[in-house]
Amino acid sequence: MTVAKPVAANLPLPRRRKTVSPAARLAATPWLAPVVPLLRAVVPPLLGLLAFLLLWTLVSQLSRGSLPGPVSTWASARVLFADPFYQNGPNDQGIGWNILMSLGRVGMGFGMAALVGIPLGFLIGRFDFLARMTAPVISLLRPVSPLAWLPIGLLVFKAASPASIWVIFISSIWPMILNTAAGVRAVPQDYLNVARVLRLSEWKVFTVILLPATLPHMLTGVRLAVGTAWLVIVAAEMLTGGVGLGFWVWDEWNNLNVEHILIAIFVVGLVGLLLEQALVWLARKASFGQEN
Amino acid sequence: MDRFVELENIRKHFDTKKGRFVALQDVNLTIRQGEFVSLIGHSGCGKSTVLNIIAGLLDPSDGIALCNGREIDGPGPERAVVFQNHSLLPWLTCYGNILLAVERVFGAKESKLQLAARTEEALALVGLQHARDKHPHEISGGMKQRVGIARALAMEPKVLLMDEPFGALDALTRANLQDEMVKIVEKTGSTVVMVTHDVDEAVLLSDRIVMMTNGPAATVGEILQVDLPRPRNRLALASDPAYHACRSAVLDFLYQKHKREAA
Fold first, then answer.
1. pLDDT score at A28
2. A108, burial (CB in 10 Å: exposed 0-12, middle 13-18, buried 19+)
3. Is the pLDDT of residue B125 over 90?
4. In this complex, which of B55, B83, B91 lies closest to A190 when CB atoms are compared?
5. Higher pLDDT, A146 or A2
6. Contact A129, A289 (CB under 8 A)
């Protein structure tokens, strides 16, 4: 699993001769000592964001106003988020609706992919024959850009929304199949030996050993899938139209409302970040202190 | 019963990429009911293979393995195994890990209450009532191994099989667990087969020590009868000449007669 292990704050710092690190010097000042860890956690990200805003301002200045700066974008965002759920006909709806529609499509496609992909992953992981059987097809289809599936979706479903859901489905199913299968294969032989000595039933082996042992791998697959799905939905909606963040970006480009495009970029990033963090949290809950 | 576990002309080979590897050849061994037998030998001598054949986790390539008069056909709870690395399920508490075994063995005949009582009793036997609701990653290596032992004992096995049960522990913890094992065996009268490479451990715990020759095609070299009176006490034994005689006999076998060339 790729969850970054938190670096323990109480690890001894590597010893250096003579030179004292700025942090150590700070810590040596008694009245500052309690806030040092807080500063260490907060200051670098703040500096990073500040540098980003400065760079942005600079670029927008250099572009002579064709790229809006942070201030005008912020002002525009406040107006936009003041009424996120208005509805003026099918092509002019609030940002809230756009976010919810995109999330809904991701949820549908992703949910169906999980329903198909996870059980399939279990079967592939458990039965070598099935793994060999599916390997050529999966290896062939997995590297295909998800958007290449869009015309097939439009052809079959004859509607935009199901077609984008189909694209999400196809893009998020591979990591779930492959990670679940890898997880099943990685179940320690010791646990299976325990099952053999106890002569547990297949069902009990599945619920007590395979499922919990595979869960962390499975959640890695889910996390990768959600990341891809969220990347893909914006592009798919740009092509298909309707209500959704992707369509909104394209619509605002046609309106030449660049502030809104920038806002959309931040919203997409923020929602993606939240989805990812939620799954990281879930994965940590499900790892039961196992080494992963 | 004098021939509770019986191995007759056991041979075991593994087919590897480099050809056939004969691990065991002509292994003959009988174990009495209530006896504590240790298998000792250099690493790679196939002592764990012998244990796994009794457990039913491995099938012998040739020969007959019997337990209680019946041919051993696959693993089963009447031959409980304490694995070297405890093999507790990390998502179950100590209680849950033991209950899983208890449910499987007694679930058909006993009420939930009785099963719970058995589980508590097993925890108490290894002195871990306080860690009842802890998960394996929250307790020390010695405690994990004790839970593993409790899980095996709770199944009331006909034979308790232990594969280097204390091998992964530090010396002090190991000594403590060995002392506990002495008491538990005296209390329960279990038939035990233990794989070890620790000479002191073998002498302290065993009625007989089975010394194995080096592989490939390892077999039983010598069998030493340990006639030290029970209950045994580590401190008293330290100055007991009989204890030292046993110890030297095993050391002599391992380091004189079947010295292993440094790999």
1. 62
2. middle
3. no
4. B83
5. A146
6. no
Nearest CA in chain A to B137: A289
Chain B contact present for A190, CB below 8 A = yes
User: Which residues partner with B218 through β-bridges?
Assistant: B24
Residue A12 vs residue B193, higher pLDDT: B193
Residue in chain B nearest A210 by alpha carbon? B89
pLDDT for A233 beyond 50: yes
DSSP reduced 3-state for A92: coil
Query: Mean pLDDT across the stretch A120-124?
Result: 92
pLDDT, residue A7, reads 46
Confidence tier at B199 by pLDDT (50, 70, 90)? very high
Q: Note the pLDDT of residue A85.
A: 80
Burial class (CB in 10 A: 0-12, 13-18, 19+), A173: buried
Q: Is A193 on the interface with B (CB under 8 A)?
A: yes
Q: Are A84 and A96 in contact (CB under 8 A)?
A: yes
Give me the phi and psi of A190, to 5 degrees please.
-55, -45
A199 contacts on B by Cβ (under 8 Å): 74-77, 104
> Residue A102 above 50 pLDDT?
yes
Enumerate the residues of chain B whose CB falls inside 8 A of the CB of residue A289.
90, 135-138
Q: Report the alpha-carbon distance of residue A171 to residue A86 in Å, rounded.
A: 32
d(C-alpha B246, C-alpha A238), whole Å: 83
Question: Following DSSP, what letter does each residue of A63-74 receive, concatenated?
Answer: TTTSS--HHHHH
C-alpha dihedral, B240 to B246 to B251 to B252, nearest 10°: 120
Please state the pTM of the whole predicted model.
0.74
DSSP H helical segments within A127-244, as ranges?
128-141, 150-157, 160-185, 189-198, 202-204, 211-240
DSSP-based three-state secondary structure for B141? helix
pLDDT tens for B92-120 read: 999 999 999 999 999 889 999 999 999 99
Q: Is A94 helix (H, G, I), strand (E, B) or coil?
A: coil
With residue B95 as reference, give the H or E element that holds it: helix B94-106
Inter-chain contact B77–A198, Cβ cutoff 8 Å?
A: yes
Looking at residue A292, its pLDDT comes to 38
User: Measured between CB atoms, does B141 come within 8 Å of chain A?
Assistant: no
